[in-house]
């Protein structure tokens, strides 16, 4: 436990991955560590080769956020994101933490992770830089940089989904096509029967009327 506590007390990502080549939300968990001063600023550096075209920050009451950009040829990339407390009283101490979030992209393709070197500034002017990257899984740097995990993009062809939708649609269409003739034939037969019955009733009525008229003539004569 003596070793676990210091390892956990650093700026870190919450572990939510983002998609390679896409846009996603990065959440950084920042605990206060100084017993003498409050955390009043956080600067996150986007490393070279990670060319985010845009970054939008989640507002934090009592704090401001600035997205700094850098020219890369004829384009621009996000180079740094700086959060600053508007007043030292809005900082937080060693029994608290803050969540600093931003949405940005596109994230690079072909990488499993990206380290985001971060500087944590305190109200007494001191700065702690979280900018070290472990050389292997077994090692733990003293000041590790937060790591954002990148997931490979899903297969955009969507063969299974496309075939499933096509099969469903085709099945529905086939069902409608086969059901329609039977329904039409039943409907036609019904109306044909009604027409015949109606004709017979009309003939019967005519015969009955003719018989009555003839009987009246015979009676009257």
Automatic annotation (TrEMBL):
Positions of the YncI copper-binding domain: 10-150
Top-level taxonomic group: Bacteria
Keywords: Membrane, Transmembrane, Transmembrane helix
Membrane spanning stretches: 190-213
InterPro entries, per database record: YcnI-copper_dom (IPR012533), YcnI-like_sf (IPR038507)
Region (Disordered): 152-186
Coiled-coil stretches: none
Pfam family name, one: DUF1775
Name used for this protein in its record: YcnI family protein
Lineage: Bacteria, Bacillati, Actinomycetota, Actinomycetes, Mycobacteriales
């Amino acid at each position: 436990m003596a070793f676990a506590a210091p390892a956990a007390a650093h700026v870190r990502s919450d572990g939510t991955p983002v998609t390679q080549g896409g846009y996603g939300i990065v959440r950084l968990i920042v605990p206060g560590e100084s017993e003498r001063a409050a955390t009043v600023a956080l600067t996150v550096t986007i490393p070279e080769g990670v060319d985010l075209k845009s970054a939008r920050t989640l507002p934090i009451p009592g704090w401001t956020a600035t997205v700094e950009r850098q020219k890369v040829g004829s384009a621009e990339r996000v180079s740094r994101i700086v959060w600053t407390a508007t007043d030292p009283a809005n900082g937080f101490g060693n029994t608290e933490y803050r969540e600093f979030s931003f949405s940005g992209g596109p994230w690079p393709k072909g990488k499993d992770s990206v380290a985001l070197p971060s500087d944590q500034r305190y109200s007494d002017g001191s700065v702690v830089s979280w900018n070290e990257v472990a050389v292997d899984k077994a090692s733990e740097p003293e000041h590790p940089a937060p790591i954002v995990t990148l997931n490979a993009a899903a297969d955009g062809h969507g063969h299974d989904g496309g075939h499933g939708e096509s099969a469903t649609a085709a099945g529905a269409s086939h069902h409608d096509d086969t059901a329609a003739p039977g329904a039409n034939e039943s409907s036609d037969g019904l109306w044909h029967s009604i027409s015949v019955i109606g004709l017979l009733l009309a003939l019967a009525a005519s015969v009955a009327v003719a018989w009555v008229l003839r009987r009246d003539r015979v009676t009257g004569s």
